[in-house]
Amino acid sequence: MDSYRAMCNEAGGEENLRHTKKDHLNYWTRLKMKNIEGGDAQAISKIMYQELANDPEFFFRFRLNKEGKLRALFWRDSMMREDYSIYGDVVVFDTTYRTNRYNLICALIVGINNHWKNCMFGCAFIGDEKIESFVWLLETFKKSMGGKCPISIFTDQDQAMCSAIQKVTFKDIHKGVKVTLFGSLKRDKDFKRTFSYCLKRCVTEVEFEAVWNSMIEKYNLQEDSWFQRIYDLKEKWCPALSKDFFSAGILSSQRSESTNHAIGFRANRSTSLTEFYSIFKACIQRWRSTEKHDEFLCSKSTASSAIPLSGLLKHASEIYTLSLFTYFEEKFGSLLNLTATKLNALARTLKLLDGYATTASEYYTYIQ
Questions:
Q1: Model confidence over 25-73: pLDDT tens digits?
Q2: C-alpha torsion 200→206→212→216, nearest 10
């Protein structure tokens, strides 16, 4: 229908076309059938070999079952390998997207570029979420990238996926917390705000423990097995407890989920593999076009700031992209405000004490 409306617009109206809407849809159906002639698996295989002919660094692997039917598929192009060599310290691996007529599970491997936007490292379809399937996928991905492993990998709480990651020797696994709330908690805004604070905003372990324990006690969740389980995994998702690894600003697997949304807006349960590949490729082309635009802006623009560019801030403006500098400036400004607030509070305290104490011991006694 998109193509039909575009042709109507170009012709100056539907009445100026030489075919009807029904003719158009019938032709489109025949065209799709021609694309998957001989079976969708054979069609996607043909596409992969065509991509390899056009891009010698293109990489793909199939896995068949005992009946010779497609069980798993992985691919990545040369640009994905180049991106991984630059931005592959941190990856997000998730399987939340399942939109195709064969009920295959789509697994996306995503990273973040220097403009803090998604970049694709690889895509796969697997038949199930068993350890064996994940091991095959991760070993294939690792092989396609010359054996290089990321420093950290973010995923959900799927145990089979985590076991597979450990088997393939990915170093650090960081789990996202996917929250499904029921009953009164689903409608309690204060609870959602407190829980979100634990997930994203706690700075120290002491602060996290205080906020978490207060929340558990307030909402009587001491016996809740789900909250107990994620608390036992707190080192994997709480930012206050995971400051010793590079995360590129990722707190959960939301990067992959946003990728799923970006790719899946035109796909549905009837989407074939060949149709999905076309949607996927168009999405990646949009991402890369956006990255080129960001690169152009960085090359032609100079970072500006409401704070005087001197010292550390000036150095950051010279080495960071515009997106990252904006984030750095925000955190830098917050730090300055916090420091100023503490200094003002200290000055007021000293001024107040001046009328009450004359010796160091008296100052100490007053503060106590």
A1: 778 766 665 554 457 788 888 899 999 999 999 999 998 877 777 788 9
A2: 180
DSSP line for 76-140? E-HHHHHHHHHHTTEEEEEEEE--STT-PEEEEEEEE-TTS-EEEEEEEEES---HHHHHHHHHH
Tokens linked to 8 = 């109507």
d(C-alpha 77, C-alpha 251), whole Å = 27
Q: How many domains does the chain have?
A: 4
Whether the Cβ atoms of residue 107 and residue 129 lie closer than 8 Å to each other: no
Cβ(23)–Cβ(40) below 8 Å: no
Q: What is the DSSP letter of 59?
A: E
The rounded distance, in Å, linking the Cα atoms of 348 and 255 is 45
Q: Closest by alpha carbon to 161, among 216, 109, 231?
A: 109
Q: What percent of the chain has pLDDT over 70?
A: 76
Q: Which of 298, 362, 307 is nearest to 332 (CA)?
A: 307
Which helix (H) or strand (E) element contains residue 73?
strand 70-76
Domain, as residue range, for 28: 2-33
Claim to verify: residue 209 and residue 222 sit in the same structural domain:
yes
Alpha helices in 219-311, H assignment, sequence order: 225-232, 234-237, 254-264, 273-300
From residue 239, give the alpha-carbon distance in Å to each of 276, 338, 358: 36, 20, 44
Q: Which amino acid is at 163?
A: S
Q: Which of 153, 206, 202 is nearest to 175 (CA)?
A: 153
Provide the CATH number for the domain around residue 288. 3.30.420.10
Q: How far apart are CA 90 and CA 248, in angstroms?
A: 7
3-state DSSP call for residue 332?
A: helix
Rounded to whole angstroms, how far apart are CA atoms 138 and 158? 15
Q: pLDDT confidence of 123, banded at 50, 70, 90?
A: very high
Question: At 71, which helix (H) or strand (E)?
Answer: strand 70-76
Q: Are residues 171 and 219 in the same domain?
A: no
